[in-house]
Each structure stands twice: as C-alpha cells, then as structure tokens.
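Subject — a protein and its fold
Fields — amino acid sequence, structure tokens
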Amino acid sequence: MSRLSNIIEEFIMELFQGTEDGVVEIQRNELAEYFDCAPSQINYVLTTRFTPYKGYYVESRRGGGGYIKIVKVEFDTEDTINELIVNTIGNSITKNKAYSIIDSLLEEDIITEREGYLMKVALGDRSLACVTGNRNELRADILKNMLLILLKE
C-alpha cells in the first residue's frame, strides 16, 4: 500500500509544478478512479503526506466527488513564519513533526543542508536523552528559538 501512496504523492507533487500560485484542486473520487483505489486511500495520502508540518494546507469538502484544495505554504513572509512558530509548533512537538518542518524549510531553500542537519541533531532523541519528562515541550522551545535566529536575518 505504501507504494501506491508514494505514487499518489508523486502525482500530486507533479500537479504543483504546473501551477504558479501553489494551489492544486482535485476531485477525490476522480483521483481514486484514476489510481483504481478507494477514496480513503487518497485521504490517507493527504493526511500523512500533505500536512502543515510539511508546508501544506488541505481544504476538503465532502459530497460532489470530494473536492480537495491543497495549498503549498510559502515561507517568505514574517507572518507565515510567526504562524509556523505559534500555531504549527505550539508548546510541544514530536521529533517526526519537527523533522518534517525542517525538511520543508530545506525544500524551500530557506535553510542550508548543514543547518538542517544541525537542527535535526539538536532535536533528536539522542541529544535529548537526559530529559526524562516534557521532551516534546523542550523540543518545541529549541526549534522555535532556532527558527527565530535562522529566519529573522
């Protein structure tokens, strides 16, 4: 099943390359028909591969074939960065979600490979091994502070 998920993700990513505004609109049922799968498989791909942590906003509407609008969030404004820090990271974040944010920043060329690697090492479980409680809260604080330094140049 993950192979099909990868294929669906790649297909949607290719749709983004054909847009100028970073918005893709699709019909859930048409996409499911195209890939000969259940609409729930499309939902799975959207909820696991196109998340706010990866730089996407998904708007979905039931009925009428299941209209879906996927927006690629650009990290080019201070408001977007503040939104990322306050709402997406919040007071607690898991390692995987933190890594997804870092990967999105790398993809957008906002941070370098080296900066991304250093951020991931600092936020990894090995670096936070001595923390017995509130590891995800500490991880969120560290990530927010790193972003403030890196993105407020």
